Amino acid sequence: MLWLAVHFPLFGLEVCCPHGLPETPAALIEDSRVRLCNQAALDAGIGLSSTLATAHGIHPSITHHQRNPASETQRLELLAEMCYRFTSQVSLEPPNGLLLEVSGSLNLFGRIDVLQRQVAELCRTLGHQVELSTAQTPSAALALSRSKEPQSGRQGGLAGVPLACTELSAKAVERFANMGITTLGPLLKLPEAELGQRFGTQLIHYLQRLTGAAPDPRIYITPQPTFASSLHFLEAITDKDALLFPMQRLLTELQQWLVTYQLGAERLIWHFATHDPATRISMPVRFANAQQQKSAFLDISRLKLDQIELPEDVLTVGLAAKRLVAWRNQSHVLFENLSFGADQPGQSMVQSTELIDQLNARLGPQGCLGIRTTEQHEPEHAWQNCRPGTSAGPNDRAQTIRPLWFFLRPLRVERDTFTVLRGPERLQAGWWRDGSGIGRDTCRDYYVVEHRNGAQCWAFLEPNGRWFLHGYFA
Amino acid sequence: MAVQDLLQHPDLWRAGQLRASQAFPTTPSGFAALDVHLPGNGWPEAGLMELMLETSGIGELKLLAPALQSLSHQARWIAWINPPFIPYAPALSALGIDISKILLIHPKNHEDALWALERASKSGTCSITLAWLDERRLRLKDTRRLQLAAKQGGTLSCLFRPAEASEQASMAELRLKLAPAGPIELAISIVKRRGGWPLTNLKVLMAHELKTQDMQEQLACWRQARRRHARPPQAPPLLLTPELKPVAHSDRAMH
C-alpha cells in the first residue's frame, strides 16, 4: 500500500474566495478568531488565533470571511471526485485533506513523482494550494503532508513531524510538550505499555496505525453520477462579459469531471440567480454531439448567453450537465490545412456538428434542420424535416417528375397564365386519413406547365376545375 | 528581359487568357458549354458567386445540381440559408444528391441570416452554401465579408439575387445573370468573372438528367403549346412571388 495525502493548507480561505486569493491581507474567521490567513496577512504580522479586533488593529483594511463548513465539505467532495481519475480509492479527510491509495496507479503513471506532479497541477487548476506526501500508512501520509507547511518547523522524515500536525488531541500535545517531547521520533521510542497507562489506549491505537502495526481501513468515496456545481459572489455581476470568467471556471471543473469519467455532455444547464431564489433563470445549451472540451462548451454558451435576458445583478452561477454519454475520442487530422476541398470519405461528420450547435444556439432549435424523404406518395407527405445528418430516407428513382422547389401551401392560379407542357399524373390519396387536413380525400391531376414569366411549374387541377401551383422545376 | 519571359510572369494577365489562373481549385459545373467560359473551367471551390434572376423557378437549381451532386459526397454540409420555398427532398434525392448533408437554416431576421451565412462559409464545414438575403439591406461591404469568409472556409458560397442587382457593384468573384429560354435551356450572362470579359446570352442546355426521349418529347410539347397559345406581346411579365413564409417547418412536426 502506498498512500498519497493531499493537504490544502489554505482550504477554508480558498473556498470563501472563488476568484483566487487576494494579494492584500485576508483572513478566515471562526468564533471571531483568525483561523487562516494568507501570506500578505502573515507578513503584516497577523498571527493565527488572534482575535478579529487585533487583526483589524494591525491591518485596518484586512478582508475577512466567516468560515463556511458546509461549502467546505461540498468543495472537498468535489475535489475528491476530481482526484478519482488517479485512483479509485479516494477518501475524504475533513476538514481539508484527501487520501489517495496509489500503489495500483503506479503501473499507469510510472513514477510517484509524475503522479504527484499531475495531482498538484490539477489542484492548482482548480484554484487550491496543495501539499503532497506519500507514506506506507494513511496516518503517516497525512501527518507528513500537514507538517509540510513552512510554519510547522519539521526536520527530517516522520520522526521529525511535530506532534501538533498529528491527530493527537491538543491536551495530549501540551502534556508531551511539558515532558520535552515535541516530535514523533522521541514519542515512538517510548515503551508502549507505559504510554498506554498514562495517555490511554487511544494514543496507542493511533501510534500503531501510524507505524502500520494496526490496520487502518478508510472509507472510499463513491462518485456522483451527475455533475452540478455553482459559484457564489460577494459582489453582484452586472455585465455579461464579466460572467464569462466564473463560467469558464465552472467549465474547467466540468471538463476535469468529464475526463475523469470518460463521459461527454450533450446538454448543459446554466443557472443565474440573484438574492431572491425565485428569480433564478435557467439557460439550457444543447449540443448535436457530446462534447468534452471547455472551449467547445464556452463558445456555444457565449452565443446562448447573448440571446437571453438576465436579471440586473447576478450573485450565483450554477452549472449542471445533463445527458451524459460515454466519450468516444476522435483522432484529429494531422495536416488539417492540406485536406479541405478534397474528398475524404472516411472523415466523420462529427467534427462538423460544431456549426449546427452554433446555429441552434443563436437561431433556436428550429433554426437549423435537415430534410429526408419518406415512403409516402402524396407530395405533402413525401418529405419531412429531421435532425441534421440523419439518414436520407428511401430513394426510389422512379420516373415520376417532381419539382425541386416545393410550395408548402399550393398557390391558386388562373388557367390563362400558363401553358401545359406535359401531364397529367393523377395522384389520389388521403381517404384513410383522419380529420380534414391536407390530403383528406385528395384527387389531383398534376401537370408540368410553363408560366408566362418563363418559370416551369408543377401545377394541379382539382376536380372542381381550379388550378393550383405546387412547385417550381427550378 | 525578353518578351517571352515577361509573358510567363504570373502577375501579367492578357485579355482572352481565361485559364491563366489555375491557382484556385474549381469544381466542374457539369455543363461543358458553360465550363469553357468559367475561370478554371468550373465553379470556384472557395469564393462568393452571385446568381441573379428575375424570378425563382427558371432553372437556377438545375444549374447547380451537378455541382451539388458531386459536392454532397464530401463529408461537409450543404447549407441553404433562408430559401424562398422548400427544397423538395424527393426531387433532390432523385438527382443523386445526398440529402443527409443538407442543412436548412431559417434565420429570423437579416442580421441572423448574414451571420449564419458568414459562419457557415467560414467554418470550413460546408462545401457549398446557398443563400437568399434581404436585397434592400445587403451592402457592398457585406459581399466583401462574404467573399472573404468563403475564401477562408473553402466554401462555394452562392448568393441568389434579383436581376436588378447586376447593376450594382459586388465583391463576388463570379456573377451570373440567368434568364429563362425555353423548357430545357437557360440563357446565362456572365456579368463578372475573374480574368475575363463579361459575356452575354450564353445558351446552356439544362436537361442533363432527363433521357433524350423525354427531352425531345418535352420540347415538342412546348413548341406545340407555344403555337397554340401565342404569348400576347403586350402582356406585362407577371412576377411570381407568392407570399409564402420561408419558415416551412412550423406546420410540420419534426420527426
Explain this structure.
The complex is a heterodimer of chains A (474) and B (255). Chain A has three domains: 3-211, no CATH class; 227-326, Dna Ligase, domain 1 (2-Layer Sandwich), CATH 3.30.1490.100; 402-472, no CATH class. The relative contact order of chain A is 0.07. With 474 residues, chain A is an alpha+beta fold. Chain A is 31% helix and 28% strand. Mean pLDDT of chain A is 82; it is low at 338-350. Chain B has 255 residues and is α/β, with parallel strands linked by helices. Chain B has a single domain (22-227), classed as Rossmann fold. In chain B, the strands form two sheets. In chain B, strands 6-4-7-8-3-9-10-11 form an eight-stranded mixed sheet, with helices on both faces. In chain B, helix 5 (110-123) packs parallel to helix 6. The radius of gyration of chain B is 19 Å and the shape is globular. Classes of the chains: A alpha+beta (474), B alpha/beta (255).
